[in-house]
UniProtKB/TrEMBL annotation:
It is a multi-pass membrane protein. It comes from the Bacteria. Keywords: Cell membrane, Ion transport, Membrane, Symport, Transmembrane, Transmembrane helix, Transport. Belongs to the NRAMP family. One of its GO terms (biological process) is iron ion transmembrane transport. The lineage of its organism: Bacteria, Bacillati, Bacillota, Bacilli, Lactobacillales. H(+)-stimulated, divalent metal cation uptake system. PANTHER family: NATURAL RESISTANCE-ASSOCIATED MACROPHAGE PROTEIN 2, SOLUTE CARRIER PROTEIN FAMILY 11 MEMBER. This is Divalent metal cation transporter MntH. The keyword Manganese does not apply. NCBIfam families: nramp (TIGR01197), Nramp_1 (NF037982), PRK00701.1 (NF001923). GO terms for cellular component: plasma membrane. One of its GO terms (molecular function) is metal ion binding.
Length: 516
């Protein structure tokens, strides 16, 4: 008893147990009930995952993509969503079948040194998404309640107390809250787009990709179709969702000695995930449609959240009379800010859970959830505060652009981290040693490798343009050299990861055969 109490007193302690042990296998599910009752019991983890596909980082890329290129890039949202469904299916299946999350499965097959490097890389990706959440939530507080931006940034730190409260009421209620917030976001954008009376024929045609989708011409407001597409892909498929889903998919109580029970869990978890990701796809599509149909072409000079909020309250920039009349009441802009706040809070919950998953999985260290949240949020707040303080003497639009650029530029870490989650995920779920009869069939393997190679390639070719924004214009040659070196470093680290995973898998297979 004394040793257990002393362990609780420590802020950080060693752990090597089940993934998110406090919720693992705690939720009862019916065995012989009707389809919809069983689906309801399994519903929830998909909503927490879907949050990452509609966080504040997605908003700017989708809306400005619509503003600049009409419905051309909506096909990229569709392709990204289908790839996300495939990856999240594999992630949930890995957790249910192997009883390990993705971080644990990778660490079991790799060295301690590589585990630490991958942990740091994934932590940076989580912090990058957290910066977008800080900015989104702080701007929403500023717009709704006129709270000074610096103070609003500090207020976002206090969401740790909300998280503490949620952990006390149970994981099922957290899932329900997240679903409610998703529905709020969905309702806001359905309402705004419905009022705009968009060109549905143009939307349907936009879902079919063509040679212009990934073209480098034309360039509008510094964006080409290619950079717009890369921005949407980078903001949509995020590495931390794969770690999270492989963990929270284990929250349902399953008999792992019964193959039929495992198969049922995989099937209903896939239904849950696909339904929620379809909602995320609808939200992202509505954001792009909003960029096209709500505003007059080319009127949005400030693509930041501030600029979009102002535009939604300015009748002269809106596309039709009905929207203009509603805008006069302030309803459109207020609803936009409410949806932004809901999105930020949703991402707060999932980001903290993911941080706990990767810390425990990669380095076998655990800290209280409130401390974990406080540390991540404080680290994310620092660059936002620096950006706000540096732009005090600038014009209002320049301040808004700097803050918006910080949010977009922080996403560069996602490009680094994504290959180190999607390639191991595919290798693990393709392995009969790991998955047994639940390993990916040849169709899923083929689609998986196609998606993984395409995502890795697009992320790496997009790196040079992302790196250049960190340097002055006259340093562009130096920035290109840095980008090339980083790409070589990423490929070398990726090769190291693949080799260790391959040899680690063979060692586990040998041990399993000897034990038989």
């Amino acid at each position: 008893m004394k040793s257990r109490n002393s362990q609780r007193m420590k802020l950080i302690h060693h752990t090597n147990g089940k993934s998110l042990e406090e919720i693992n296998g705690t939720i009862e599910v019916p065995k012989d009930s009707k389809f919809f009752k069983t689906l309801l019991a399994y519903s929830g983890p998909g909503a927490l995952v879907a949050v990452g596909y509609m966080d504040p980082g997605n908003w700017s890329t989708s809306i400005t993509g619509g503003q600049n290129f009409q419905y051309l890039l909506i096909s990229v949202i569709l392709m990204s969503s289908l790839i996300a469904m495939l990856l999240q299916y594999m992630s949930a299946k890995l957790g249910i079948v192997s009883q390990m999350d993705l971080a644990q499965a990778i660490r079991a097959r790799t060295s301690k040194a590589l585990g630490i490097i991958l942990w740091i890389l994934t932590e940076l990706a989580i912090m990058a998404t957290d910066i977008a959440e800080v900015i989104g939530a702080a701007i929403a507080l500023y717009l709704l309640f006129n709270i000074p931006l610096v103070l609003a940034v500090f207020i976002t730190v206090l969401d740790v107390f909300l998280l503490l409260l949620l952990t006390k009421i149970g994981f099922r209620k957290i899932e329900a809250l997240v679903v409610c917030l998703i529905l709020v976001i969905l309702a806001v954008f359905v309402y705004q787009v419905a009022l705009s009376n968009p060109d549905w024929k143009g939307i349907i045609e936009g879902f079919v990709p063509n040679q212009r989708t990934f073209s480098t011409h034309p360039e509008i407001a510094g964006m080409t179709p290619l950079t717009g597409a890369l921005g949407i892909i980078g903001a949509t498929v995020m590495p931390h969702n794969l770690y999270l889903h492989s963990s929270i998919s284990q929250s349902r109580k399953i008999n792992h000695k019964d193959k039929a029970d495992i198969a049922r869990a995989v099937r209903f978890s896939t239904w849950d995930s696909n339904i929620q990701l379809t909602l995320a796809f609808v939200v992202n599509s509505l954001l792009l449609i909003m960029g096209v149909a709500v505003f007059k072409t080319g009127v949005i000079k400030d693509p930041s959240f501030f600029g979009l909020y102002d535009a939604l309250s300015n009748p002269t920039v809106l596309s039709n009379g009905v929207l203009a009349e509603v805008a006069k009441t302030g309803a459109l802009s207020t609803l936009f800010a409410v949806a932004l706040l809901a999105s930020g809070q949703n991402s707060t919950i999932t980001g903290t859970l993911t941080g706990q998953v990767i810390m425990e999985g990669f380095i076998h260290m655990r800290m209280p959830i409130w401390a974990r949240r406080l540390l991540t949020r404080l680290l994310s707040v620092i660059p936002v505060l620096i950006c706000v303080s540096m732009t005090k003497g600038y014009s209002l639009q320049a301040q808004h652009e700097m803050i918006n650029n910080l949010m977009n530029d922080s996403q560069v870490f996602l490009a680094f981290a994504l290959p180190f989650s999607i390639i191991p995920l595919l290798m693990l779920t393709n392995s009969k040693n790991e998955m047994g009869s639940f390993k990916n069939n040849w169709v899923v393997q083929s689609l998986g490798w196609l998606s993984v190679v395409a995502l890795t390639y697009l992320n790496l070719i997009g790196l040079p343009s992302q790196i250049k924004v960190f340097f002055p214009e006259n340093w562009s040659s130096f920035a290109e050299v840095i980008a090339i070196l980083l790409i070589i470093l990423v490929l070398a680290l990726l090769a190291w990861t693949i080799v260790e995973l391959y040899h680690g898998n063979k060692k586990i297979l040998l041990v399993n055969n000897e034990s038989k």
